[in-house]
Amino acid sequence: MVEQKNALSILQRLIQIQSINQNEAAVADYIADLFHPYAAAQVTRVEYSPGRTNLIITITGTAPGKILGFSGHMDVVAPGNPQAWQYPPFSGQITPDRVYGRGATDMKGGLAAAICVLLDLLAAGTPFKGQIRLFATVGEETGEYGAAQLTKQGFADDLDALIIGEPSQLKVEYTHRGVIDYTVMAQGKGAHSARPELGVNAIEKLLQFYPRMAALMATKTEVDPVLGPLLHNVTLISGGDQINSIPARAMLSGNLRTIPAYPIKDLMQEMTALVTELNKNEDTALKISFHYPESPLPGNPKAPFVQLVQKIAAQTLQHKVPLVADVGATEASEYIHAAKRFPIVIFGPGNDSSHQVDEYILIKDYLNAIRIYHQVMVQFLNAD
């Protein structure tokens, strides 16, 4: 396995590159340079927009076989107030048991672990069948842009299995909810509150939508045995300019956490139909929009690849590793739209410090992830 010093150096450098919701090209350049000495590594860049470049590293084995993918995103969320951090958020500070910094857990730790495995396979000349394909993607934190782009361009169409290195606390996640974020805008007409008949109250228009939306969601009674029920929450609402004026505009935003029983396209069609119905009233003018909807991952805990990852993780960690569901969504929401279906596992080092001050990763978890990824890649590809 790659030396611990080198593994920590790669993770530290990834953290030091400030890819806050953009600037992933700098991360991609650094990763590409790591593989430059190896002729066997094929490096492909796919630009999303200026300064935002996806990277695909492909390593082909000594004989034909299966194709194993690994996906990790290069962007991170903003660190907030740097003064609130114990260590500077982009220092990648290494202590005896931790590495600190924005993205240490989410998810440059998982990405660095996969990079280390590929570099080790290349340096050692380890024989394997088939192909390994690493996707380093842009825009995961704000909409899975990179995974969507690579899927649409066919880079995942021939995969036989995929690992997404999001922080799972080294548990094996095989399913997760989908997400629909929506906004309803209401257009009214401003007027003085002493002459309301001269205006149209946009907030009252939203109040027509709110109970009807709640009633619609209440009909979705099916409960997934692992993920639970569909969830709906109204999370933002605003309108008006001041207290003595009839509001001309108002806005309501909500969030759905979906389950496989309710496809996101069907839900969006029903919500759009509801707005259309309300707009038949001549006093109502509502407009609904959706923001980067993400499909749920309908995983199978008995899939051989899921079982393989669980077995190798348990052997490496020397304790039982559970099969669990992810409470959020991941890039799997995009990869499931590839030309063929393949098993997807979310498995990576990390903890609950993601998106928080003093985000960190335990060094032991990071090194264990490298060991587990290595064994999964070799055993999956070399199995008959």
UniProtKB/TrEMBL annotation:
GO terms for molecular function: metal ion binding; succinyl-diaminopimelate desuccinylase activity. It is an enzyme of class 3 (hydrolase). GO terms for biological process: diaminopimelate biosynthetic process; lysine biosynthetic process via diaminopimelate. Its EC number is 3.5.1.18. Keywords: Amino-acid biosynthesis, Cobalt, Diaminopimelate biosynthesis, Hydrolase, Lysine biosynthesis, Metal-binding, Zinc. Pathway: Amino-acid biosynthesis; L-lysine biosynthesis via DAP pathway; LL-2,6-diaminopimelate from (S)-tetrahydrodipicolinate (succinylase route): step 3/3. Residues 174-281 form the Peptidase M20 dimerisation domain. Signal peptide: none annotated. It catalyses: N-succinyl-(2S,6S)-2,6-diaminopimelate + H2O = (2S,6S)-2,6-diaminopimelate + succinate. Its cofactor is Zn(2+); Co(2+). Coiled coil: none annotated. CDD domains: M20_ArgE_DapE-like. InterPro entries: ArgE/DapE (IPR010182), ArgE/DapE_CS (IPR001261), Bact_exopeptidase_dim_dom (IPR036264), Peptidase_M20 (IPR002933), Peptidase_M20_dimer (IPR011650), Peptidase_M20A (IPR050072). It holds the Pfam family M20_dimer. PANTHER family: ACETYLORNITHINE DEACETYLASE, PEPTIDASE M20 DIMERISATION DOMAIN-CONTAINING PROTEIN. Belongs to the peptidase M20A family. This is Probable succinyl-diaminopimelate desuccinylase. It comes from Loigolactobacillus bifermentans DSM 20003.
